Amino acid sequence: MRTGVGRTKDKMKKWGLLERTYSTTCVCGMEQSMKYILQCPICPYNSCTKDDVMNVSDNAKDVASFWAE
User: Fold this and answer.
1) 1 within a domain of the structure (yes/no)
2) Which domain holds residue 36?
3) DSSP assignment of the chain, as one string?
4) Is 63 part of any domain?
5) This prediction's pTM
């Protein structure tokens, strides 16, 4: 999350790890990118900022844990 690179659907497709026809949208309907997962409405900790991530705040840890499941 700190580098902006992770196993989000947009990156997985770019790296050839998703089928070409597989959607890169999140279940909420928006494009799933690293920037987006910090604010995704389905995540109960959706008010995470880049500063939270850079400072490894508890909120950033909660967001990372949510998406790791």
Assistant:
1) no
2) 9-67
3) --SS-SS-HHHHHHTT-S-TTS--B-TTSSB--HHHHTT-TTSTTTT--HHHHHTT-HHHHHHHHHHH-
4) yes
5) 0.76
